[in-house]
Structures
1.
Amino acid sequence: MRNFTTVNDIGPLAEALEKARYVKQNPFADQALGHNKTLLMVFFNSSLRTRLSTQKAGLNLGMNVIVLDINQGAWKLETERGVIMDGDKSEHILEAIPVMGSYCDVIGVRSFARFESKADDYNEVILNQFIKYSGRPVFSMEAATRHPLQSFADLITIEEYKKTSRPKVVMTWAPHPKALPQAVPNSFAEWMNAADCDFVITHPEGYELDPKFVGGARVEYDQDKALEGADFVYAKNWAAYADPNYGKVINTDRSWTVTAEKMALTNNAYFMHCLPVRRNMIVSDDVIESPRSLVIPEAANRVVSAQTVLKEILLSL
Ligand code: CP
């Protein structure tokens, strides 16, 4: 694997999950692979889990790790070609990317949707420029449309906790005061559609995701109906995708918050969320603190997903 940006890059999921199990049981077995190799992690946006787990994954593999926060200490970057750079941006991304590539062997990039242009977001203009101009393998640490390291960790977690071979997994929209990208729900849908599960998406009208990501999943507008019999409840907020509301909050209906009453409709489901989460908007205190909440083991599995992916990239160098 050279680049990792979608579920398609990881190969057959059963094999990927087997590799992840090995990495989890033997976290320091491949230290020689990363010897004298440098991982550069570039953040255009904030992070807690991705920053720490990916750094830990690189260290477990014996790599040197450099972290660059573009918005804290680096020059402000121009990303559009053809712009007369007479404003506050001192450097163009077309020089910055190959320079970054010259200092490392592998690059991770976090670059969220900016909600300025749907075409730019859904064409992944920042991530794709790293792939085109860095000269290095590139992996996504959450891009505009997908968060594959998160989805891989989510799948690993479901595999660890599922009690039936084909569990019912329900991804539910939940309210949030700010406009959040569709990367996590898009990606989760993509991975669940590729996995062996009964996958249902529920959200209020107007929050339909890009059909490319929904795929063959069942969409149910009645949240209570969707939750019936669920084995896993995956909560997430996202802003509207459909025009003319792309990137907007069109509804903050608190009846969609995942509460104990909602969880009572399920098959004693586990609760999942990628974090960070706004309590008592997305999920009530009692649900996230309950023994059925998987948010901490799910976050811990971010090391496993990152290390499995990094290992495959190192093997391809
Ligand atoms: N889930 C996730 O990616 O968390 P961070 O934004 O803190 O990295």
2.
Amino acid sequence: MKLCRFELHAGRICPGVLVDDATVLDLSSEVENLTCLLEAADLRSRVGALIKQGLPRHALSAVRLLAPVEHQEVWAAGVTYLRSKKARMEESDFSATAYDKVYAAARPELFFKSLPEKVAGPDDTVGIRADAQWSVPEPELALVINSRGELVGFTIGNDMSSRDLEGENLLYLPQAKIYEHSCALGPCITVATSETEARTWTIRLTITRNGQPVFQGETAVSQIKRGFTELVDYLYRSQRFPHGVILLTGTGIVPPDDFTLRPNDQTAISISGVGTLTNVVATV
Ligand code: DO4
Ligand code: MG
């Protein structure tokens, strides 16, 4: 079951279900927004019943998919894959041991990533900082969690990062991670799926320049070091999320050190079980 948000015509934003690759079911007459559904005690049966109701359907080509986030803050976990730890230790100097230590520590790295209204959706622009020289996308499985701390769905996240800023000094992490268009989510939220199932999924990244692929990488969700419940548990320690929260789970795909994104590059992140999130790069 894949939930989405879409714009039907200017300013009319609707919650929906992706029925297939070409059709979206319009839930707007029955449900106020996606958050109401994500908060439902019986999400699977609620969505199942809505699908059987004969609600209006639209061609996907006639609507614009939006980031599947409403009032949820977006957070991110870091250094959860060996690949991320190694790449970060290589790019940094005096802070290299911090990555080593956090990879092994009981407490994960968790950082604030984005306000919901700043998140880019499918086909929107993702940003590279004008004052950075080394920018990469970070393709990540994103957990969708409700206000009760229950993991209710999965989406795709892009944790855009300025590697030179982070590598120069770990205290620059907020600037390397949080700037205009630095976070993208979409195209939908897969619900009624277990962590066990999600751990069988593959994450793929393709970066295209002038129509040609310039980088392709792949990882398996099973390579993540930490359990999803463990990450959620730490995030909800001494903190409430009244609207729920989205948590990116870290990257396991890092392009080679001589690669940096350029304006007009296209990033396509695919996660089996969710779909593909495509964006175009621009300097911000
Ligand atoms: O430690 C800095 C950020 C790590 C991160 O974003 C990742 O591993 O995905
Ligand atoms: Mg990341």
3.
Amino acid sequence: MNIILFGPPGAGKGTQAKYLVKKLNAFQISTGEILREEIKKNTEIGKKISYNINDGKFVSDEIVNNLIKDIVFDIKKKDRLIFDGYPRSLTQAKNLNQLLDETKQKIDFIFFLNVNKETILNRIRKRKVLENRSDDDSDTIIKRYDTYMETTKPVLDYYSKNQNFKEIDGSLEIDEITRKIDTFINV
Ligand code: AMP
């Protein structure tokens, strides 16, 4: 099963991705984590993207598309991909479609965890204390939320026509969201 978790920063995509990885013996593709790792290792990509990430802006489609290509093509991970934070633009969504076609895969579910701005801000403030992420300060959170809203609207329109697109209230408790996801995948 391949699944996309879609939703604003702080919607709980990472938490649900980790649950799905365990349940389905799958692999989490968190572009945010991959990018943070590049910064930590101070790679050429890391140097290019740190400004954007710390400023709450998106990293270029080209960089992100390149980073996920090998993972989608990895035969060991075939049909066990949990996308967390990708795709985030229409170009990325189309790129993913092409990579899946080329590798004879498809997306089984797109779960849209929908949460309002206020809930997000509260959650991310708490996460800042726990994880101390540099892009989790209040100004950056607001920018990240606004960037998400502007850029991902076309992605939402693109996927929401699909039968496997499922909107879930992301302001629910973690366990309740998990239960809802389970009702779709446990068939
Ligand atoms: P996340 O951990 O998913 O909240 O991502 C943290 C940051 O990484 C985002 O605010 C963006 O700057 C960058 N990022 C992560 N995924 C993507 C993506 N698919 N496209 C562009 N930028 C991304």
4.
Amino acid sequence: MAVSEDIDAAATAAHGLISGAATLDALKAAEPEILGKKSALGQFKRALGGLEPDERRVVGQHLNAVRETVSEALDDRRAELAAGERRAQFEEERMDLTEVPTDPGLGHLHLVTQTVQRLEDVFVGMGFTVSEGPEVETDWYNFEALNLPKWHPARSMWDTLYLNLDQGDNVLLRTHTSPVQVRVMQEQAPPIYTICPGKVFRRDTADASHLPAFHQIEGLVVDEGITFGDLAGTLDEFTSAYFGGAIKSRLRPSFFPFTEPSAEFDINCVICEGSGCQTCQRTGWIELGGCGMVHPNVLSNVGIDPERYTGFAFGFGIDRLALMRHGIDDLRDMFTNDVRFLTQF
Ligand code: PHE
């Protein structure tokens, strides 16, 4: 039947157009020619009207079946092209994660943090616990409880930064870590063997050996029968554990309101090991911190019986300790965060 053959030929042409379209756009542009009203297959619809009813039915069914197949092929091709284009887009936008360097230059702990950890290790090895407290304190914890009443002239030893909270000069940035010791004594009955590392703040202008925010570590021991000899022995033990056997410590009389007697704690210069150099001004000694026997008033202030218990305390600057150990000549270098400096430690 001639018409059916024509239909088959038109269908073949339509399938050719479908598979020949290389992109979605090309397929869309070809659609009117494939199944549109003016396409060959579209024209047959109109031609049906001129056929005998019997023939019209047979040819009509054939035409519908053919159009159905062409329409399915069109859908399949459209889906195939869309998937291909999506794949191409993914490929183009794909991030090549293998380009991330295998050594991204990971950071490490800051020198001060490393120093704190090393100090903690030494003291924990000697049986001390580690205590922490708030950096914002009240006058009572920072001064009063430590035997420093408001009128005490020694308060000028600490250039205090007060917080403007409409509470007068009552709330401040702690000037030392000693208030942590007060808190420990309030919370815990003797025996107490603890160290308190942390940040402290003073109204100092930064220079090579001062910073307005720096780090301290203080130690506190309260027990029965504690003597000045225990203090000296502990500091000597610490010095050789931290700096090595060649470095010794010594005590010089001094004054702190919260300790009696009080002493300054020196160690052999770590640069020249005691023979005398520029760093130690040819004395062979470097001052590390203060110490002494806990003043009985301080024990009474926190409800510990000074007749039964005695104790000692010591405190020194961590940043300066790190400075000495590594031969750094300006404290400010520690906190300007220049990686060329930081990566050396
Ligand atoms: N708290 C003192 C300071 O900041 C140091 C110190 C601690 C002195 C313990 C004696 C005993 O200077």
